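Two proteins were folded this term; both appear here.
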Amino acid sequence: MPTSTDLMGFGMAPQMAAILGNQDSTVTCAGTTNATATLIKTHMPKLVAASSQTGAIFNSSSSIGSPYFTFCSTSTAAVVYPPVGQTMNGTTDLGVTVAQNKMCIFIQYAKGVWSSCLTA
């Protein structure tokens, strides 16, 4: 998916490009459950885990079929959760651990049903 900057380069209005394009961001992970994790607000978050097993969570109004590309840049692993009460890889409220220098792609393929693909 193109970034908002790419779309503006093709002449799209900045407001529309911000809605349609991906923007990277840094998410400082917090909490150790999906009830206390930091909210992910963009589709390309760089996860920064302050301490072991702190996490980030997707918004409950996330779009179906729109992928999220996450990357953990810290020496401690980050955990990514679906919204409270939703499923990840077939288990309700399951968090996926993303280790240092690993990328994970997440997609909500039906309302409240998420799947992940972690790099080797």
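Next, the second protein.
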Amino acid sequence: MTEPILFALTTVALLATPGPTNALLLTAGAADGPKSLRLIPAEIAGYLVAILTIAYLVGPLIADVWALGLLLRLGAAIYLATLAVRLWRRGTRFECNLVVTRRDVFVTTLLNPKAILFGLGIVPVQGANGGAYLAAFCLLVAAVGAAWIVVGLAIRRGLLSTMAASVLPRIGATIVAAFASYLVLVPLM
């Protein structure tokens, strides 16, 4: 996608769509407040590693070996399911003690199905202005990620009742588990 405005609109729309990384950022914003902004570099790093790996290595392999794509989806689903269980077990214990870690955000973003879309076509890394598009992508990731954290912070500050906010880790766990199920079930349909 080499049209800058279309690239930006598509990127923001996809990044803003609820998903596993956004569920973690929202949960972190609600649990840890402004400290959660420290997670943004982990999200950017996860996307960059995924996009570059997909664009240069995995994409061509998946085109040749269908089973590899299935194995990658299964691995991502297992990781997301494990993360969902961890978030669920934290349950309503909504203390400011790193409910979501940098590692959680990095690995979840690395395995995020959105990264496949970015790596296979939205971010033209192999094009003439690939570096500029990657830089713009990083800025958009930071802006959208911060927005999810701010929404979580708003919830923490009273947008929801204390009781409703206390179940946010379980809501995040449910969203992450839904994406894990999606990764396993879609290839079977």
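Residues 130-159 form the longest helix (30 residues). Residues 4-188 form one domain. These notes refer to the second protein only.
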